[in-house]
């Protein structure tokens, strides 16, 4: 429902500015030498630390917080630029000095450590997925609300998405020329448009960089892996009496990643912490015995397959196969004994504890992707006169990664092997006859495969901006403007190698002996189309011809092209003098068009490929050419779509108080009207206030806003994605296809964002000290979301017929669950941000140098998700350490600087938590477990503390050497159990790489 509150208050506030007596106090003019913003785009940058946050750690070459306080402030939480304006929206700034102290090969890694950023994706996340499309993306998420609800800008401008969800890839940004990154931790849709529900992250570049600088860095881990290097260089100069300015930069980063060790309970390269953690989950019907339904176990071993094959049901259940196909009794663990019906006594489906762990695949997932980024950037500008310029920027970037999601291709007891299979040893054939059976169920990890599945995403960006900015006088007032048009393209290529076609695999393993004595494929159609028999009975070298047949050299592939066109105009100035200071106005309009087109391969998409690709994907009568979905994973489908946005906004800053007795106060109001070609009209607004109290250094701030996120291209026009998964159904683990499709009827999400803060900034009694605390409360309604496959299955079992219509579960080999987005869910996040800093020279203590302390912390009070589906309850993720919102996330740094030497300590801490907050913890006398109130034996998941050490030495004013050691104590990640798998880590919260060393040189001239 649209509320008229903001517009009413705009006029009331304007009226009050003139109704109150105003002749007693006049606005203080900014110093005449204070540098004004050189463009409206720069005016959109976040506040300097002295205004909106405790002072950032700075070097001697940077302005101190006190010096910055005398300038006109440039702010990104607001588009207003005015004398004395202090915005109500909290903003945290990281300066060049902060970024350099972190000494990361990618600025993304530095930002992701900030407490307010929770749920960001990088090269250590999604390494266990083939098809989710976000692998290798460096995307930021505020408040755990997701990357799609965080707006990431470059110099206040949108950047073309690197994924069909619309999220940007920070790795594609020019990073060496970034002089500051500002994080606006509050809703900013009224100022900047859609997606700014959690806030805004703005990368601010040095637009007039002059000189030359370079950075060379290399590093590796304690385990002699993830070796990498970074090379960056930038040059800038002015010509024609400095009227023409050009800056260029080039960057290259290579990180070799951490490869999987393969099968078994073995961590990569000597990491000993991996213990195959998992949930042991009893059926609900068995929980009336007073014992919990869930237990967290280690050394979890699937009993539905073995490394080289296992008979999983019938009279021969428990027979495994080893070298040369020789049978042997499988060691189940948990003293388990097969029951001949697919179950194992002493074990809980699908895991036993201990036993033969050689076929485990969890440790086979890469801990970190092999990663390469290349970026070239230039900015050229021409000063029409001292107050106005036109400019052009171009950015070319390519980010490539590759990784293995898992070894082999596990088949969970879903294979049928005929007793007539000629690859079976004679003893098994005889046992079949003795037990009067003609076939048996079979599971295997397929460890005979010569290579692991490997995924290669490559994203290539081209982005161009043509703009003008400056200032002019109108009716005796100075106005600034910023106008630009941008075109961006991102092409994403995903190629998957060494992966099998399901139908060909099934045909190849079903072998018979032909009339001439040769072993052939049983299916005559398959045999006529090139089928080569495959022996999966035991550890035998795989026939290269059979491998080429089931895993062709040209595997799944996806080709996506996205484009973004933006035209924007912004105007900023002081309208007139109010009784307490200048009333400032920012207004503007923007047009944006987003579109995408994606094409999958013929075997995945089910559509015959266009020429000349027919040679790569020849026709095969075994493969489904209508719906596709023929690959083991990576079934990419075709899709396309577009939408456009027209919007206009107005923002006002109205000083309402300026008094020696009562201090200074202002009201900040914004309203934005937006029309989406797909989702229709939507409105966002903001109402905030800031009061500089008469108490020395004390300021209060508060803001309430309505923010929006419109459905993105992926949600509207998603190319159907099909992935393999397993679900629990009627006490069994079954394999299903997850089929995800789009929904063009989606509406925008509507968020209500409230915050209130207290800032104490360098009072006279504590010079150099600042602290702020901000309470935030964000409610998002109509959240676009889909249930998981397991949730849908559970709801179907509980009787939800609408959900049941989206799946088939009783057709082995053809089971599927359809996942689709709806405006069903809601989110409610609230917590407290705390930031403090202290900077002081040590001379008064008789010590050399200067000391700086800075700490940031976020206390999550709630992170509630409600699915909106009958039969489910709201789940609070705050403190669930399997997610990305711990109760506490803290980052602290202490730095000592003296002449040429600088040393710093950094502490990173996440608090202890739970596995899930909806669990009921109990050991005995447990209530009967239910879907919405499951019971668990132990629901405690430890947090983690990390210590980093860094330092630098200045050989001269131009040359600096530096080092950094992350995770000095080599703190292991906590076990992260899952229900149906044993991946076992949570890289969203925990360091999974271990101790890492980096050294480098910086040169500035």
From TrEMBL:
Q: Where does the protein principally reside?
A: membrane
Q: Where are stretches of biased composition, namely Low complexity?
A: 28-56
* Membrane topology note: Multi-pass membrane protein
Q: Which residues are the signal sequence here? A: 1-27
Span list, region Disordered: 28-69
Q: What positions does the domain TonB-dependent receptor plug occupy?
A: 87-200
Q: Which Pfam families match?
A: Plug
Which cell locations does it reside in?
Cell outer membrane
Q: Which UniProt keywords apply?
A: Cell outer membrane, Membrane, Receptor, Signal, Transmembrane, Transmembrane beta strand, Transport
Classification via InterPro entries: Beta-barrel_TonB_sf (IPR036942), Plug_dom (IPR012910), Plug_dom_sf (IPR037066), TonB-dep_rcpt-like (IPR039426)
Q: Give any Gene Ontology cellular component.
A: cell outer membrane
* Compositional bias (Polar residues): 57-69
Family stated for the protein in its record: Belongs to the TonB-dependent receptor family.
Q: What's the name of the protein?
A: TonB-dependent receptor
Instruction: Specify the species.
Output: Pseudoduganella plicata
């Amino acid at each position: 429902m649209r509320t008229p509150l903001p517009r009413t208050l705009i006029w009331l506030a304007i009226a009050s500015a003139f109704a109150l007596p105003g002749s007693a106090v006049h606005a203080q003019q900014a110093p005449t030498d204070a540098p004004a913003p050189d463009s409206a785009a720069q005016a959109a940058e976040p506040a300097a630390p002295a205004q909106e946050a405790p002072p950032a750690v700075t070097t001697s070459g940077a302005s101190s917080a006190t010096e910055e306080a005398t300038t006109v402030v440039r702010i990104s939480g607001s588009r207003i630029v005015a004398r004395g304006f202090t915005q109500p929206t909290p903003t945290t700034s990281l300066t060049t000095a902060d970024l350099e102290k972190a000494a990361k090969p990618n600025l993304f890694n530095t930002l992701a450590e900030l407490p307010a950023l929770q749920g960001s994706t990088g090269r250590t996340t999604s390494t266990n997925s083939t098809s989710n499309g976000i692998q290798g993306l460096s995307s930021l998420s505020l408040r755990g609300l997701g990357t799609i609800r965080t707006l990431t800008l470059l110099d206040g401008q949108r950047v073309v998405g690197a994924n069909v969800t619309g999220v940007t890839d920070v790795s594609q940004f020019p990073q060496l020329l970034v002089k500051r990154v500002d994080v606006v931790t509050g809703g900013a849709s009224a100022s900047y448009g859609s997606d700014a529900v959690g806030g805004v992250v703005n990368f601010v570049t040095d637009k007039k960089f002059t000189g030359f600088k370079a950075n060379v860095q290399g590093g590796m881990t304690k385990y002699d892996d993830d070796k990498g290097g970074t090379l960056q260089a930038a040059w800038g100069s002015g010509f024609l009496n400095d009227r023409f300015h050009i800056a260029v930069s080039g960057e290259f980063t290579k990180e070799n990643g951490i490869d999987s060790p393969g099968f078994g309970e073995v961590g990569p390269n000597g990491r000993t912490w991996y213990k195959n953690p998992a949930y042991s989950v009893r059926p609900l019907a068995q929980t009336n015995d007073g014992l919990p339904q869930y237990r967290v176990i280690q050394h979890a071993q699937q009993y539905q397959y073995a490394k080289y094959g296992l008979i999983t049901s019938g009279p021969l259940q428990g027979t495994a196969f080893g070298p040369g196909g020789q049978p042997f009794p499988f060691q189940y663990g948990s003293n388990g004994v097969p029951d001949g019906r697919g179950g194992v006594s002493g074990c809980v489906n699908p895991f036993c504890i201990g036993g033969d762990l050689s076929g485990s695949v969890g440790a086979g997932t890469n801990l970190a992707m092999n990663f390469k980024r290349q970026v070239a950037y230039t900015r050229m500008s021409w000063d029409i006169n001292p107050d106005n310029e036109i400019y052009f920027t171009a950015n070319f970037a390519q980010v490539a990664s590759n990784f293995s999601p898992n070894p082999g291709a596990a088949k969970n007891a879903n294979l049928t092997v005929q007793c007539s299979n000629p690859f079976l040893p004679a003893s098994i054939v005889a046992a079949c006859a003795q037990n009067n059976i003609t076939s048996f169920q079979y599971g295997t990890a397929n460890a005979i495969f010569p290579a692991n599945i490997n995924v290669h995403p490559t994203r290539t960006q081209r982005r161009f901006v043509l703009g003008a900015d400056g200032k002019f006088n109108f009716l005796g007032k100075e106005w600034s403007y910023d106008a630009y048009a941008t075109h961006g393209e991102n092409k994403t290529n995903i190629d998957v190698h060494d992966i099998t076609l399901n139908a060909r695999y099934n045909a190849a393993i079903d072998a018979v002996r032909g009339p001439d004595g040769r072993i052939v494929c049983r299916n005559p159609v398959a045999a006529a189309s090139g089928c080569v028999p495959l022996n999966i009975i035991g550890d035998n070298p795989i026939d290269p011809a059979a491998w080429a047949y089931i895993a062709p050299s040209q595997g799944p592939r996806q080709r996506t092209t996205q484009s973004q066109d933006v035209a924007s105009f912004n105007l900023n100035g002081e309208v007139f003098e109010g009784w307490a200071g200048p009333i400032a106005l920012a207004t503007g309009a923007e047009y944006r068009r987003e579109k995408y087109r994606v094409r999958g391969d013929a075997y995945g998409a089910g559509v015959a490929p266009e020429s000349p690709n027919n040679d790569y994907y020849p026709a095969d009568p075994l493969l489904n050419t209508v719906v596709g979905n023929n690959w083991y994973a990576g079934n990419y489908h075709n899709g396309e779509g577009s939408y456009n946005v027209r919007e206009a906004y107005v923002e006002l800053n109205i000083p309402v108080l300026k008094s020696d007795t009562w201090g200074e106060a202002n009201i900040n109001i914004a309203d934005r009207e937006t029309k989406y070609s797909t989702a229709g009209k939507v409105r966002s607004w903001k109402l905030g206030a800031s009061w500089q109290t008469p108490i020395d250094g004390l300021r209060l701030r508060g803001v309430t806003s309505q923010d929006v996120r419109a459905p993105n291209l992926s949600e509207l026009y998603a190319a159907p994605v099909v992935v393999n998964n397993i679900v629990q159904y009627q006490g069994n683990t079954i394999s299903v296809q997850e089929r995800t499709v789009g929904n063009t009827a989606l509406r925008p999400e509507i968020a209500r964002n409230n915050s209130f803060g207290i800032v104490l900034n360098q009072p006279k009694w504590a010079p150099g000290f600042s602290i702020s605390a901000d309470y935030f409360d964000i409610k998002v309604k109509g959240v676009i979301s889909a249930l998981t496959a397991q949730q849908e299955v559970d709801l179907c079992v509980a009787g939800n017929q609408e959900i049941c219509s989206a799946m088939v579960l009783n057709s082995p080999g053809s089971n599927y669950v359809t996942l689709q987005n709806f405006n069903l869910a809601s989110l409610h996040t609230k917590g407290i941000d705390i930031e403090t800093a202290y900077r002081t020279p040590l001379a008064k203590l008789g010590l050399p140098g200067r000391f700086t302390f800075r700490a940031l912390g976020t206390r999550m009070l709630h992170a509630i998700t409600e699915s909106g589906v009958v039969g489910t309850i709201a789940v609070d993720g705050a403190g669930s350490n399997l997610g990305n919102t711990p109760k506490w996330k803290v980052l602290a740094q202490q730095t000592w600087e003296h002449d040429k030497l600088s040393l710093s300590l950094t502490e990173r801490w996440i608090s202890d938590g739970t596995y899930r907050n909806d669990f009921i913890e109990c050991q005995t006398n447990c209530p009967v477990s239910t879907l919405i109130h499951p019971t668990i034996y132990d629901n405690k998941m430890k947090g983690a503390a990390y210590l980093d050490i860094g330092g630098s030495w200045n050989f001269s004013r131009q040359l600096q050497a530096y080092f950094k050691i992350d995770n000095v104590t080599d703190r292991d990640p906590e076990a992260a159990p899952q229900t149906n798998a044993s991946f076992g880590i949570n890289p969203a919260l925990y360091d999974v790489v271990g101790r890492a060393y980096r050294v480098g040189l910086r040169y500035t001239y």
